[in-house]
Fold:
Amino acid sequence: MKITAAEALIRSLEMEGVEVVFGYPGGAILPVYDSLFHAKKLKHILTRSEQAAAHAASGYARVSGRVGVCMATSGPGATNLVTGIATAYMDSIPVVAITGQVSTSLIGRDVFQEVDITGATAPFTKHNYLVKRAEDIPRIVKEAFYIASTGRPGPVLIDLPKDVAETKIEFKYPEQITLRGYKPKYEGHPLQISRAAEAINKALRPVICAGGGVNSSGAEQELMELAEKAQIPVATTLMGIGAFPENHPLSLGMMGMHGTPYANRAVTESDLVIATGARFGDRLTGRVAGFAPKARIIHIDIDPAEIGKNVKADIPIVGNVKRVLEEILKEVHQKQPTEWNERIAELKKNTFTYDKKNKLCPQEIIEELSRRTAGNAIITTEVGSHQMWVAQYYRFIKPRTFISSGGLGTMGYGLPAAIGAKFAKPDETVINICGDGSFQMNLAEMATAVENNLSIKMILFNNQGLGLVRQLQEFYCKKRYSQVYFGFVPDFVKLAESYRIPAMRIESRDELPGAIDRLIAEKGCFLLECMVDIYENVYPMVLNGSPINEMIGG
Amino acid sequence: MKTTLSVLVENHPGVLSRVAGLFSRRGFNIDSLAVGTTENPDISRMTIVVDGDDYIVEQVKKQLNKLVDVIKVSKIIPEESVSRELVLIKVDAEPQVRSEIIHIAEIFRANIVDVSRKSMIIELTGDKDKVTAFEELLKPFGIKELVRTGIIAVNRGTKTIKIEEED
Structure:
């Protein structure tokens, strides 16, 4: 029996095991939504903007490790997805985005809601497709999921013109994929693995720098074994948070621009940096010339293009972090703690802190939350000071529990990502920590959460402005504070209540324990607004152009 | 420093824009780019001359390889390859200078493909140096238009750049 390409698309998604799709309908994607109407297995979550659908899909993917799916119509629907797609691309998150397109005969004529979305997204999708022939749909969907989830994961977009979607085809889902231009390499080169193991055995002051690749390849166990076997301290990147438990004695926490002083100093003093699934981003390395000046560098990454891109690698290994670490482990010698471990303990005494003023400090709110949840929660964030404080003061102990836009730094990410996270792990506590700036970008998604009976807890740091930008202006613009205060801020408690979300506002330290009690106890959504000081800075801080061991406040 | 890369790509619409887009957004400079189908109609071959140091060339190769439509990227070594470019030059050719131009063209084994009362079109094939030398010699006559195809290249001998067929 023949079915339309739109039906074939839905069937193909079901064949890929997709349970939930986040999206927003429109004209050009009508045939797809019409087919969705009859779908039995596939659940569609209607967000309040397309951008949120893309973020929800990426939050779902980050938490579950599976491909997140979002869809939108042509034109503005597709362009609204763009920020979410770019966010997923920068953090290597597997997402398949489906967009409606105007009919093929109209493409290129600037008709209503037409935009060249494959052209627009080429720079920040792993691959994309404009479907020209209806019979290609099953193959394209299969390829899209394969490309998104294998190698270095990333977003793939499928643009489906309306007339193609309406064309009837014989449905047959392909079993195999033939992509001669795409062959990700998983196994590390044996010779390089032996060289790496030898370097680890000989190193006197090694440090592991664990990136997002550990989380995405599920290599946390191998990472732990390597660290413990050879007594190597572990620093993580922002994306690597959760890959190594931060309550472990070998943990150095996060390194980089707002990293811990001991992580940054340990890397600077080390004689061997073992980068696992990290790309040496500029926020991590500070001034590249001053980065780990005494160290040889082992760089393990699945993407060959990352090796030698930012920092020169002495021992490059292209491969899947989990598999490479498994192999390295076989040749690494068991070690007892050395002088280096004593030195690390010494460095860790010089910790970072904040000034507990009379006012409620955002850092202590996160510390309290961390104590109370003991790392057993999924924390999503937006982007700004609050995000850095979460990275610094919340003790993450499990992979895939810190869900945040690292590479692109997308404000408005956290709340929709929390929605996606909740669909991925319905039984976990999901908490979005946000500032009033970021929250106002996608706050309409409270409606999506309520409509779907999701329990999403929100902690809102209200400083009536953009704290991190203000901090940058303090340092780089001689305190010329330009457009960082909001002249008007709504009553967030009343706003939440209008969404039928219970909410409370606190302004002092004494109210904090009770507020966290309530946050944890609430069954449904809950908003806790905390009034905080906009002059609270994120420390330590490495200034632009400085090496990472030169920190302000660390 | 100029490096010639031979890139086998899927013969799909949009591939050229992906490759060109990659160069512009990563800040790589293309000196020339020539594209056409190969012995296999499903596959096109792009010959790209890149301007940049070893780091840039390495990055270009790796980033090109990441494109799903790119099947293979190979570096062409000048000493081990033959490279050619075709150029069409429309030159001022009043009757009194015409024979002189024809003479130059003969020395370069160029073809005269069009003659009008006041101008001629000359077609020349050769490597970059030959084309440049020819252009220099014609300049005094007045070059009205000049079009080059960009370099295409193949390895000498039996060495080929082909996709490895799967077993």
